[in-house]
Amino acid sequence: MTPSQLHFRGRAVGSGEPIEFWVDGGVITHEAVPGAVTVTDGGWIMPGLVDAHNHVGIAPGLGVTIEQARAFAYADVRAGATLIREVGSPLDTHPLDADSRCPQFIRAGKHIARPKRYIRDYGVDLDDVTDLPAEVARQTGAGDGWVKLVGDWIDRDTGDLAPLWPEDVLREAISVAHERGAKVTAHVFGTEALYGLIGAGIDCIEHGTGLNDDLIAVMAQQRIGLVPTMIQVENFPAIADGADRFPAYQQHMRKLYADAPETFANAVAAGVDIYAGTDAGGFVEHGRIVDEVVALAGIGLGARAAIDAACGSARNWLGVGLLDDGDRADVLVLSGDPIEDLTALRAPETIVCGGNII
Fold first, then answer.
1. Of 83, 133, 243, 351, which one's alpha carbon is 20 to 30 angstroms from that of 178?
2. What's the whole-model pTM score?
3. pLDDT value for 7
4. 210 close to 194: Cβ distance less than 8 angstroms
């Protein structure tokens, strides 16, 4: 049986300063809890990681049940991800909130797309683009403060990536979300759709492989988040290989893949707010958040900022606590400092999720 009262003493990842706190009833407290079980006395301590682009309600080729989604969520927790931003799912995963061994979720409802312009049955398809603001309003009620748009996808008539929405409609839709206290993000691979989305005041871009210097500068100035899903971008060549009917699209995807390291490095250099997300649920297996952190470190962020992109800054961005009084008890205990050696993230000594030792 997992103890409900826990004690942690060690060094804080990031600062190296001494840190001590307790867990009681699944939440953090800095007041001593008599009889608490000491989990560590000297280890490296940090909040649980954030996977800011994840789909526990999606898997290739099947309709996911809530129990399958639970298993995916558990796999992410075992990798250290105790907070998931689920950016679009055909399955309502809210029942998992009752399971404290699951990550904390911040959801975006269902993807909003157009007929034959996204993966079949994954989201809501709108025949009329002018219905977008009304659908955004509906999806604000289905999520936890986010709405997910499909910004571009292959247009079979032109044979290449193309935007789904005109900018005037995007402006209205994003305004509707903001009026309801929600933020909007969008799946975007290419460049063309980014102009309308960024011009319309979007809050975040997913993937963003088509970014150029001008768009990057605007994102940095307006503090528009970027979740580059670098380990998903590694699948672009395979995606291109499976699209023989659309040679222009194949060539485009291969170029986006080849340019991605420089594109993302330019975003880092410009000061764009970057967050770690795996895009688990499609081509990417669950439980790979550390792979994404390592990839981010390699594009100019370095270990410290890459960890922050999956922890402190990501939690602040999403409005979720770190290790303060009253925060949900999501804690990693490591044997070494991951800023000195990122591989320390791959083998935590202890993972605590919602107060449960995993």
1. 83
2. 0.97
3. 98
4. yes
